[in-house]
Specification:
seven-stranded mixed β-sheet, alpha/beta, binds guanosine-5'-diphosphate-alpha-D-mannose, binds magnesium ion, single chain, Spore Coat Polysaccharide Biosynthesis Protein SpsA, Chain A
Amino acid sequence: MAIVNSVIVPAYKEKLNIKPLTTRLFAALGNDASKSTELIFVDDNSQDGSVEEVETLQKQGYNVKIIVRTEERGLSSAVMRGFHDAEGDYLLCMDADLQHPPESVPAMFDNLKTHPFVLGTRYAPGVGIDKDWPLYRRVISSTARLMARPLTTASDPMSGFFGLQKKYLLDPAAKDINPEGFKIALDLLAKLPLPANEPIGEVPFSFGVRTEGESKLSGKVIVQYLLQLKELYVFKFGANNLIIFLVFWIILALYFLAKLFSLIF
Ligand SMILES: Nc1nc2c(ncn2[C@@H]2O[C@H](COP(=O)(O)OP(=O)(O)O[C@H]3O[C@H](CO)[C@@H](O)[C@H](O)[C@@H]3O)[C@@H](O)[C@H]2O)c(=O)[nH]1
Ligand SMILES: [Mg+2]
């Protein structure tokens, strides 16, 4: 049966999460959808046994593969590599660490059949972020989300759980995507020629906590995000308006400090 849906998972040192993600994902899809779905891990040469784990799952009949990159590193470029190698017309990206529930994948693909782009959102009634997600991550996340406000009306543009119809990626009008950083969905939302009259799909999900492995968020990733925002502001509003957005960033920095202060004290 032809592959229609592709799930791309950027992964770095995620061996312990590969099996639970794969088994839960295909169980959630059920027999029929599993036949037309592929799962692709894009691993940056973790050398932690991830390759052997995928080979074991392949022998058990799962349609899963792993691309091992030895020359490149980074979440966004790993996702783009997976998207370009994917066979499906409908592409989904999710994290390896089970913070994005595999059980929400069928709803994401359903939504993608009628929307050019779908975002898993943590900001909707009945869902949210696990209470054990660290305080400093909440502050960083809410500040980052506010800073992206001028670029998109999507409720959760920071989400690493998203999907798109492949034809928009292949469109010659698609602009170059920033291969650095963690916020690939934000870049795609800004730069793909998505139809203005068709809304972005949103699927609520509850963001879990990682139980195996470690987060790769670092100071470098935060700096990459700020550079990405600068590029997107210039892309959307033009270089002459940069000064306005520098003022905007300063206001947001003050917001960040105020929020941190109010959460701690
Ligand atoms: N190939 C590859 N994968 C990577 C790299 N860095 C991170 N990843 C993978 O990208 C996924 C997300 O990385 P985490 O380190 O778990 O991210 P996080 O800090 O928990 O951030 C999450 O929350 C953000 C929203 O606040 C999301 O934007 C982000 O995608 C992620 O879901 C994981 O599967 C991880 O293995 C890399 O350099 N290379
Ligand atoms: Mg994570």
